[in-house]
């Protein structure tokens, strides 16, 4: 409700309207999650009593998380306002920013994902993907105060872990370096194959951060169009130019105006592989 309600809300009628709204949502979600569970279990049968009971418990648990989800949404809105000088107001962000829509849908879908609800979480995030151009798998783990600016073309894979106060720009991929297969050629599922982004990191447009062992250290900055398949220490800036390739410097070096690769003389950032989900 809130900003999207056409009703006149005040302290007198707010509880009634919330109860009315949530009851309808609850019944719909129980039905849909039960159907998804039955389909996943048997490929098309009607939901059993057990399916409905499990779905009801899952939806109740997700609804109990609404206050925490609202708090996370508040942090995300504030991160957008604090991180974008073009934002005219909090209301402008709520009504118009695609990144906020995609992240909010993800946060709700993630709760259902954590409760083992099949299909519904992915349907939710793919609907947001179609509307915003931002693809966030519901299995990813995002910290608070997360801001996606512009957003089109962003991909965040299933096993990605993102800390607090992270900001990314359009066309960033947090993906897998390669698809793992077992000895008979079947896909290996459930393994960590997407990167970890620690707190206070900024990733600029077009950067590709790949691999389950890749960690961006706290406070790091990744420049536009960087292809990164190796971990980066905390407080490091990674940049790319056609003349010099990729380079890593500490934030202190950058502030002092020092150029060139990192002080140990190693080749900076190299990688090969395919940017996969």
Describe what this molecule looks like in 3D.
There is one protein chain. This protein folds into two domains: 14-133, serine acetyltransferase, domain 1 (Orthogonal Bundle); 157-252, UDP N-Acetylglucosamine Acyltransferase, domain 1 (3 Solenoid). Helix 1 (14-42) packs across helix 2, helix 3 (66-83) packs antiparallel against helix 5 and helix 5 packs antiparallel against helix 6 (120-132). 38% of the residues lie in helices and 14% in strands. The protein has helices spanning 14-42, 49-64, 66-83, 90-96, 98-114, 120-132, 251-256; strands spanning 135-136, 141-142, 147-148, 155-156, 161-162, 167-168, 173-175, 196-197, 202-203, 208-210, 215-216, 221-222, 227-228, 236-241, 245-250. The chain has 277 residues and is of the alpha/beta class. The strands form three sheets. The protein has a six-stranded mixed beta sheet with strand order 3-6-9-12-14-15. It has a five-stranded parallel beta sheet with strand order 1-4-7-10-13. It contains seven helices and 15 strands. Mean pLDDT is 89; it is low at 259-274.
């Amino acid at each position: 409700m809130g900003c999207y309600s056409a009703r006149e809300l005040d302290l007198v009628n707010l509880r009634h309207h919330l109860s009315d709204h949530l009851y309808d949502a609850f019944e719909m979600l129980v039905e849909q999650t039960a159907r998804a569970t039955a389909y996943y279990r048997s490929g098309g049968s009607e939901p059993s009593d057990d399916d409905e009971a499990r779905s009801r418990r899952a939806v109740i648990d997700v609804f109990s998380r609404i206050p925490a989800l609202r708090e996370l949404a508040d942090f995300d809105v504030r991160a957008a306002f604090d991180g974008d000088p073009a934002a005219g107001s909090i209301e402008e962000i709520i009504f118009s920013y695609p990144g906020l829509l995609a992240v909010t849908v993800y946060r709700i879908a993630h709760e259902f994902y954590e409760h083992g609800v099949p299909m519904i979480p992915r349907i939710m995030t793919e609907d947001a993907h179609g509307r915003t151009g931002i693809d966030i798998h519901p299995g990813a783990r995002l910290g608070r105060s997360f801001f996606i600016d512009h957003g089109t073309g962003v991909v965040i894979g299933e096993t990605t872990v993102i800390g607090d106060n992270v900001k990314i720009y359009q066309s960033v991929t947090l993906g897998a370096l390669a698809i793992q297969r077992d000895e008979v050629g079947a896909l290996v599922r459930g393994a960590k194959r997407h990167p970890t982004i620690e707190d206070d990191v900024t990733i600029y447009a077009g950067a590709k951060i790949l691999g389950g062992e890749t960690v961006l250290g706290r406070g790091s900055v990744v420049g536009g169009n960087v292809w990164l398949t190796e971990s980066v220490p905390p407080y490091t800036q990674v940049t790319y130019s056609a003349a010099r390739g990729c380079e890593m410097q500490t934030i202190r070096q950058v502030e002092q105006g020092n150029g060139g690769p990192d002080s140990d003389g190693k080749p900076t950032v190299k990688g090969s592989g395919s940017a996969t989900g």
